[in-house]
Design a protein that fits this description.
The chain is α+β, with helices and mostly antiparallel strands. It folds into two domains: 204 residues, Cytochrome Bc1 Complex, Chain A, domain 1 (2-Layer Sandwich), CATH 3.30.830; 216 residues, Cytochrome Bc1 Complex, Chain A, domain 1. It has 16 helices and twelve strands. Strands 1-2-6-3-5-4 form a six-stranded mixed sheet, sandwiched between helices. It has a six-stranded mixed sheet with strand order 7-12-8-11-10-9, sandwiched between helices. β4 and β5 form a beta hairpin. The longest helix is centred in the middle third of the chain and has 20 residues. The chain starts with a helix and ends in a 14-residue tail after the last helix. About 4% of the residues have low confidence.
Length: 524
Amino acid sequence: MATAVWAAARLLRGSAVLCARPRFGSPAHRRFSSGATYPNIPLSSPLPGVPKPIFATVDGQEKFETKVTTLDNGLRVASQNKFGQFCTVGILINSGSRYEAKYLSGIAHSLEKLAFSSTARFDSKDEILLTLEKHGGICDCQTSRDTTMYAVSADSKGLDTVVDLLADVVLHPRLTDEEIEMTRMAVQFELEDLNMRPDPEPLLTEMIHEAAFRENTVGLHRFCPVENIAKIDREVLHSYLKNYYTPDRMVLAGVGVEHEHLVECARKYLVGAEPAWGAPGTVDVDRSVAQYTGGIIKVERDMSNVSLGPTPIPELTHIMVGLESCSFLEDDFIPFAVLNMMMGGGGSFSAGGPGKGMFSRLYLNVLNRHHWMYNATSYHHSYEDTGLLCIHASADPRQVREMVEIITKEFILMGRTVDLVELERAKTQLMSMLMMNLESRPVIFEDVGRQVLATHSRKLPHELCTLIRNVKPEDIKRVASKMLRGKPAVAALGDLTDLPTYEHIQAALSSRNGHLPRSYRLFR
């Protein structure tokens, strides 16, 4: 026993004394087990050879401003400071399906699938991914109707490598025959998946745009039509890229980077670089302004076997009704955003709880009162020259007529008296959603890039919150009344036997109460 105690005491004498404090006097300095390396260094002193830490400081001055620099070739460089180890950097381009009037529809969709493939410097996508992995990076490309976005998130120390890679991906893609063939297969698969998935919202969004802006700008196909898949080759792509991938139509945006460093990288890799499709000559850009036409797009389809299994989704008919709103550049954009939030909605099986929108109009007036409706959701799509506010609803095919009338009534009620409590709730929820989304670095990046691309500047979150707070009931009533004077756009998918005619839907939206005209049948 004595031997064991002696051995333990000897062991303790050789180990670190972590918090030795004498009975009297000042505390003793902390000793380390590897005492030879840092002998007797107190915790209040920095360790030698360790980089000096940089801490976030608050000096009373707001550091949220977005810095924008325009280079000699027209390229805009925008950055937003954000404390942290990682950054998100990317190139946003004024390019998308709305610019394909003179081309084959589906070019932007194909370019999205071809992104981050082989380039002049990288032989394959794998090489690009390995280069990014050295800086803990990931990459992505997304196209919409009016914007194409190439983005990378990586360690801030690898900024030089990231901008060099982005420049190579955007300006020097190889577009090999093998890559184009793989892209055709990927597009084909995506189109099949789009038509088979139980949630038809992406397909309905495509249809409502086609109905609202028939054969122009944002009404052109966002997804590549099946008949165009085999026709899109390198020559077609280069013809499009030569006109739309020009520096004056690009923004290099970064979040979590020093602005001067980003500008330096842009000058190094994006100024004076000749793209793979040759030096830009006479540029032929489509500057068409969106023309709202209204109309209806119907797709008859058997939806009874969309989701098979032990608990299959019942057969539903989906309807989307929309009206022209406004551009995101107009002052009325904020009242429309508040109106959309006030309508809210969702699925009949949405979970409750704070912030879920259970007090929005489409829940209180529609889903809570009509148990047979499976979905009622409001959407607001806005572009630089137009916008579209629409409501998507779904129900059993036998109740389509009643469902359409419920939607038209809700549209009519938008232009009536607005309750102050519901307005304040919608405004608070919109501000909450805005601030919550802007906690995410990739969302800040997209917000910075899109705003600078459209307006050459950026409205900060607190400015947007001030605009939201200033929305009054008469603003909601004014924008809704103006919207209701236009023709509706309608998209319908599923069993459409009982779907009212377009003329009847238009008449209901022009009436005082939203009721559909009575339809008389000689034979039942």
